What does this fold into?
Amino acid sequence: MDHVRLSKTGDSVVILDQSLLPLEEKYIELTTLEEMVEAIKRLQVRGAPAIGIFAGYALAALSKQQCRPKAISSCCGASGTSDEGFIQILKDQGSILKGARPTAVNLSWAVDRVVNAVRVEMFRARQEDPLRLNANAGARRLAEAAAREAEKIHEEDREMCRAIAGYGLEEIQRVCREQSHEGPIGILTHCNAGPLATSEYGTALGPVILGNEQGVEFRVFADETRPLLQGARLTTYELQKAGVDVTLICDNMAATVMKKGLVQAVFVGCDRVAANGDTANKIGTSAAAILAKHYGIPFYVLGPSSSIDMECATGDDIPIEERDPDEIRSKYYEKPMAPEGVRCFNPSFDVTDAEMITGIITEKGIFRYPYSESLTAFSK
It folds into this structure.
């Protein structure tokens, strides 16, 4: 799915508006920082890896805009030189982007990568030409560095998705052999971690889509994922397009399909993994993990290694975004389904304790409990 990309002119970002799916497939072009922040907040672009890709392209587009004559004149002298002024503006814009979704670590990771790449290019240019290029030429060179890094983030994500899909497919086939399971492999998903949330196969859906391409039969039970229905609107949409057998269930039906033996594993994505393995993902993920533990079903977290935050000690240190109460009271309803003025608690994410997770599957391989040891070894 070509759902996040830099425009042909390079000064805007084009996205598939996920808030309108599955009823409408509409691409929108985002030019201003304000539009980009709103796109993240309104979940027009969502999924931790996709947000990282988007952030890279957003800074690339904003960098290209700094190449305009008026922008160059405004950044010149901001910190003494046009180069330093350029980078300071980009850094400030990146900080604003980071605040749009504080839980998803890929957002800040991608912003920092692009800003650092531009800074490295500035020092490289100074070594080549101590007298410095003119402001216009210097701005173009820095903007090109931002665009290259954004493209690199996107390509790395494609490679990451393929690797995660491969590791995950190998793991679930091993589990099914050990269980002597025959027939379609039952997978429970929560929220959406497919192509729309990444660049290609997805993370949690990667093994399913890859396996389907190779002739492996899957049957996916997709939690609707209240209150924003990402499972109902997006996961079923993706799997139907891929030709995968998918059944939509309400979130509170997960225990029933597990008890009936219809599920061989649970696959979920992640927005941030703490150093001890505690994982933040869409609200309701921890409940699915508890049920899986009770019924003896393997529970896997699938995501890029960039979602692992070794600076974050435990899940208690992960900031949890709280969203508009009307998402519970009235969104997707013709009329409000709760009394006017009733108090609502609407956290966007919850944290699944490390001991509930069978394995964390990344492009680097599969990490096992205790994660404080396996993730620490990985970081070294």
